[in-house]
Amino acid sequence: MLKVYGDYRSGNGYKVRLLLQVLGREHRWIAGDGLGGEPHRTNDLAGAEEPVVELECGSCLRGANAILNRLAAGSALLPRVPYLRTQVLQWQFFEQYSHEPNVALARFIQLYQGLPEARREEYAACKARGYKALKVMEQQLRRTPYLVGDDYSIADIALYAYTHVAHQGGFDLGAYPAICAWLQRVARHPRHIDMHD
User: Fold this and answer.
1) Are residues 64 and 116 in the same domain?
2) GST C-terminal domain: from which residue to which, for each copy (predicted)?
3) Fewest 10 Å CB contacts: which of 13, 28, 134, 195?
């Protein structure tokens, strides 16, 4: 059975948990504190970026998006057509470099730190860059129901994680109707699970 180490309430942990739920993949979650505490895990995983998946063979995978690609292989969530698969990767890189560092960090500063005075300038910069990332998503989702065309994929899982809680970072999604419709489509998947379930 797969073992997953980390905090499933964090956006990166939630990505993996949502994928496993959608795939119906049996696993054991070994929880840790995503706010800085060490998860309960074996010594060889200490210091690794959360979440960490330990495969049945004993090998370990680190990094949420790498894990999504490995676990979704062979499923409908990872397209077999090379061009579409490349688009999935493009959205995952976008999530890691343009979306998550801004949307997730603004959420962390506001929700978990209470928007301290010392971080207000950083928070404002995150919000400005985060809105730019949301605009890119909005433009794509006006053209297609999911980020990579007509089908739900791990690109959607990767970006859903922090987008659906963006309001907790002070983002107003009211001006992004295509994103709002997409969030509803993702949440209607029959095997969907909420971040805090």
Assistant:
1) no
2) 81-197
3) 28
142-178 per-residue burial string, b: 16 or more CB within 10 A, e: under 16? eeeebbbbeebbbbbbbbbbbbbbbebbbbeeeebeb
What would the two tokens of residue 137 be?
A: 């998503």
Contact 160, 183 (CB under 8 A): yes
pLDDT in tens, 110-168: 999 999 999 999 999 999 999 999 999 999 999 999 999 999 999 999 999 999 999 99
Among candidate residues 15, 50, 72, the one where a domain is terminated: 72
Range of the domain at 51: 2-72
For the chain, state the CA radius of gyration.
Answer: 17
The token pair at 19 is 């994928």
Cβ-based burial of 191 (10 A; exposed 0-12, middle 13-18, buried ≥19): exposed
What is d(CA 154, CA 179) in angstroms, rounded to the nearest whole number? 16
- Which is nearest to 15 in space by CA: 141, 132, 118, 155? 155
